[in-house]
Design goal:
By secondary structure, this protein is of the alpha/beta class. The chain has a domain of about 200 residues: Rossmann fold, CATH 3.40.50.150. It is built from 12 helices and 9 strands. Helix 1 crosses helix 2 and helix 1 packs across helix 4. The longest helix has 27 residues.
């Protein structure tokens, strides 16, 4: 089987950086994170990794790889926590790229849905063909017709890694509110950051996309305070992205990385946000504790 060609300056090229980060972290910090599939997929891609290999020698890039890995670990924790209460729930990976967080958490009864742009799903279908209860969906997340493809009969948990930074706040609000109405009793988990961090993350993309200002793009300083008013009935919580789930005291992690992690969670407001939607109609049906006003 020949290698899958990734064209430069394409949507598919955006898959390579997080994939390479997961590979690097698997090699650099194996006690904290292991993604054998990422290593395998890198070997199957026809792509010039020369620049990434050079950048991977820097401390900054290695810390970035650790960030990618911790994010996947954090989201996996939240998926498994939801499945503990709802063992047959569906798992939905929004803006999935070539990530297999959903499949790695999947049990025999869990349907998995991976959603991304058509060019991305085209590559995923070749590199990670769906099987069993896995469905890949080619869609723009803002076109909510994809809702109709999700079977949430037994509950549903959504995850999004590195996705909403590229959305304007009003688009995120519209999507989240539509999800609350359609997927009552479900959970959404995603990573967020403050305006300073989002500006840094979007620096290259803004130039390529011809965006003149990022002030309208989604960033959070206080997830609970800023997101709770969006919903009719939801519990919004957040934890530190880097240190909220793991203290990073593994011997393989340099002390300087733990300092950077504290700065990331603190100054940069890097968080994992969890939204649990509840409704009078579905709370009892799905086994959620009813709100005081529920009939």
């Amino acid at each position: 089987m020949g290698k899958y060609h990734i064209q430069t300056n394409s949507v598919q090229e955006t898959l390579v950086i997080p994939l390479y980060g997961r590979k690097l972290c698997s090699e650099r910090f194996p006690a904290l994170f292991k993604d054998d599939k990422a290593v395998e997929l890198i070997d199957r891609l026809d792509y010039d990794f020369g620049d990434l290999k050079k950048r991977a020698q820097s401390t900054g890039y290695q810390f970035g790889a650790l960030e990618v890995a911790m994010r996947q670990n954090d989201l996996s924790y939240e998926i498994k926590d939801y499945l503990a209460a709802h063992p047959q729930a569906a798992i939905v990976n929004l803006g999935c790229g070539l990530d297999q967080t959903a499949e790695n958490c999947q049990g025999e009864q869990n349907r998995v849905y991976n959603i991304d742009f058509p060019d991305v799903i085209k590559a995923r279908n070749v590199l990670i063909p769906p099987s069993g209860l896995v469905t890949n969906i080619a869609a723009d997340l803002n076109d909510t017709s994809w809702f109709d493809s999700i079977d949430d009969t037994h509950g549903v948990v959504f995850v999004a890694a590195g996705v909403f930074y590229y959305f304007k706040t009003q688009s995120v609000r519209k999507l989240f509110c539509a999800m609350e109405k359609r997927f009552a009793g479900g959970r959404l988990c995603f990573d967020s950051a403050g305006k300073r961090a989002v500006k840094i993350m979007l620096k290259t993309w803004v130039k390529q996309a011809g965006v003149t200002s990022i002030k309208d793009y989604f960033a959070l300083s206080d997830a609970v305070k800023e997101l709770s008013p969006w919903f009719e009935s939801a519990n919004v919580t957040s934890k530190g992205y880097m240190l909220g789930y793991n203290d990073l005291k593994d011997p393989s992690v340099p002390a300087s990385f733990r300092l950077l992690a504290r700065l990331g969670d603190g100054v940069m407001k890097m968080r994992i946000v969890k939204i649990d939607w509840e409704s009078k109609r579905r709370a009892g049906q799905l086994g959620f504790e009813k709100s005081p006003n529920a009939k």
